[in-house]
Amino acid sequence: MEKRNLRGSTFFFPGKVNVGCFEKGEDVWLVDSGLDDDAGRKLARFIESENKRLRCIVGTHSNADHCGGNAFLRKRTGCAVAATPLEAAIMEYSFMEPLMLWSAFPFAEISNRFLQAKPSSVDILIRSPGVFDESGLEAIPLPGHFLEMIGVRTPDDVFFVADAIFSEALLEKYHIIFVLDVQSALDTLAFLERQEAAWFVPSHAQATEDIRPLAEANRKSLLRVSEAVLECCSEPVGKDEIVRRVGVRFGLSMSITEFLLNSAAIAAHLTWLRKNALLAPVVENGLLLWKRSS
Ligand SMILES: [Zn+2]
C-alpha cells in the first residue's frame, strides 16, 4: 500500500478506488474506505504503522467499492463515519443497493460484495454543503451518479470528486457508465469544469491538475449512450431489449451484475429522454415500451 502526498496534509492511497487521506496532527480522515474488509485492514495497518489514529471516514456515496471497508475500520479503530442522509441509509441497510437494481429483494447472484457492502452505521449526517467537523474538510454535492453523492475538498485545495468523473480508459472499456440522474450528472460535470483546485482526485482516474478534458470526455460518454438509446427506439422497444441493443452496439458482453447496472443506467437515460420529450412510455400487449415522440 502506497500513500502519495498531493499537497500539504492531503494524501491519497492510489488503487482501483482511490482513497483520500487528510491528516491533522495524529488524526486521520479518510475519503471512502475501499471494497471490503481486506481493503479496510490494509488501511488500518498503514495508519497504525504511522502511529496515527483514524478519526473519521467521509463516505462520498454508498456504492460497495467506496464504503465496503467501513464496517471493518469502524470496529477495529472506533472511527466515525460521515455521509449524506440518503447515502447513509444505504450504508446502514446495504441490501438496498441490489434492491434498487432489481426492484425486489435481491437473488443470490446479485448478493455479492461488489453490489452489497457489509452494513455499517453512520455517525455524522452531512445535511448541508460545507464544513461538517473540525477537520475543515468541505462536503460538496455532486449529484447524478448516485442518490446523494458528495465530493470532498480539503483545506489544501485538493478536491476529491468521487464518481462524478471516470478515466478515459474506463469510459472506453464499459461504455455505459452508471448514472441515476443524467441531467444532474451533466450539471455536475459543468460545475466541476468551473471549479479551481490544486488537484482533482476522481475515485477511478488518476489525480489531475486540470479536470476539464476528463469532464468533457465524461459528458461525451453520457451523451453517446443517450443517443444510442434513442436510436434503438426506431419502433417501440422494451427496456431489456434496449439494453441488449445498446450492448451489441458497444460490443459489450455482460454478467448478471453488469446487465443490471447497465439496465439501471439505461433507465436513467430513458427518464432523461422522456423529460426532453424525445421518448414516451406506452404499454402494448402487456409490455412497457418506449417510442419516439418526435
Ligand atoms: Zn465507484
Description:
The longest helix is centred in the C-terminal third of the chain and has 21 residues, at 212-232. Strands 1-2-3-4-5-6-7 form a seven-stranded mixed beta sheet. A five-stranded mixed beta sheet has the order 8-9-10-11-12. The protein has 294 residues and is α/β, with parallel strands linked by helices. 38% of the residues lie in helices and 24% in strands. The mean pLDDT is 97. Helix 9 (239-250) packs across helix 10 (256-275). The chain folds into two domains: 4-223, Ribonuclease Z/Hydroxyacylglutathione hydrolase-like (Metallo-beta-lactamase, Chain A, 4-Layer Sandwich); 228-292, Arc Repressor Mutant, subunit A. The radius of gyration is 20 Å and the shape is globular. It contains ten helices and 15 strands. The site of zinc ion has 7 residues, from helix 2 and strand 12.
Structure in a nutshell:
The chain is α/β, with parallel strands linked by helices. It has ten helices and 15 strands.
Core attributes:
10 helices; binds zinc ion; Arc Repressor Mutant, subunit A; alpha/beta; 294 residues; Metallo-beta-lactamase, Chain A
Q: How many helices?
A: 10
Tally of separate domains: 2
Q: Which bin fits the share of residues in helices?
A: 25-40%
One letter per element, helices H and strands E, the order comes to EEEEHEHHEHHEEEEEHHEHEHHEE
Q: What is the CATH superfamily of the largest domain?
A: Ribonuclease Z/Hydroxyacylglutathione hydrolase-like
In quaternary terms, these chains amount to single chain
Broad shape: globular
Which ligands appear in the coordinates?
zinc ion
Class from secondary-structure proportions: alpha/beta
CATH architecture of the largest domain: 4-Layer Sandwich
Specify the biggest β-sheet. Answer: 7 strands, mixed
Strand order of the largest sheet: 1-2-3-4-5-6-7
Stretches where pLDDT falls below 50 for ≥5 residues? none
